[in-house]
Amino acid sequence: MSFPQTSPRLQGAHLQAGYDTRRVLDDVSLDVEAGRLTMLLGPNGSGKSTLLKTLARTLRPTGGRVVLDGQDIQRRPTRAVARRLGILPQGPDAPEGLTVRQLVAMGRFPHQHFLKPQAREDALAIDEAMALADVDQFAARPVESLSGGQRQRCWIAMVLAQQTELILLDEPTTFLDLKVQVDLLDLLAELAHVHGRTLLVVMHDLNLAAAYADTLVMMRDGRIHYQGTPEEVFTADTLKAVFDLEARVMSVPGAAHPVCIPATGREHAGTLGEVAP
Hints:
30% of the residues lie in helices and 26% in strands. The protein is built from nine helices and 13 strands. It has a six-stranded mixed beta sheet, sandwiched between helices. Strands 2-1-4-5 form a four-stranded antiparallel beta sheet, covered by helices on one side. The protein is globular. Helix 4 packs antiparallel against helix 5 (148-161). The chain is of the alpha/beta class. It starts with 7 loop residues before the first strand and ends with a strand. A hairpin with a 2-residue loop joins strand 9 and strand 10.
């Protein structure tokens, strides 16, 4: 089933959520637009991961609702949700000795049924996912034998094997070298812009988020404070308001998006702002 590119695939409306008696999200509404790469930014404790879990139905909201392709996500069967939405949490671990192909094959669970074997269809989906994530050459190797970036691509391949059009990822580039981060973000951008996937990604690196996002969402204290294109919301004022960060935000020749340069201790507060190259 296809959806208009202007139709939100995933919508959170007036969400409230948290853990035990601690509320984390406070009246959060967010539309995740189809075929776009949306980046979610915010300081630690701002509610980014909680919002991602709530949208993915791994955390039930105490208020508001989540709508997936026009239907309340809480009223849909788990397998039906998993056929439409894939989520990759932060820092996943694979069982010792599991090969890359075995890991990627776990993504086929929503499509399998003991009364309806789909061995050939599953194999084709696994091969396609590994090729797209560029890990097919590692198919027979144990996951733990790979580098951090290679392992992360394997996890992304597992999500791709679900064959969902909507993918949520929680800080997929954490603890990776810069070149590996860029390679992974190139892959995510390709999934959105070439293959038509819809992605919502929690990020911690401000400049990488601004460089790759179609839409930036900035959270603080359990609320969304700013949302728009990087050119609209990635400014010195918003970085100060959301992160309490003094920084210059400037255009760089050859770069499509603005770049922030944090102030050092030698620079005086109040002298920073938007500057041209």
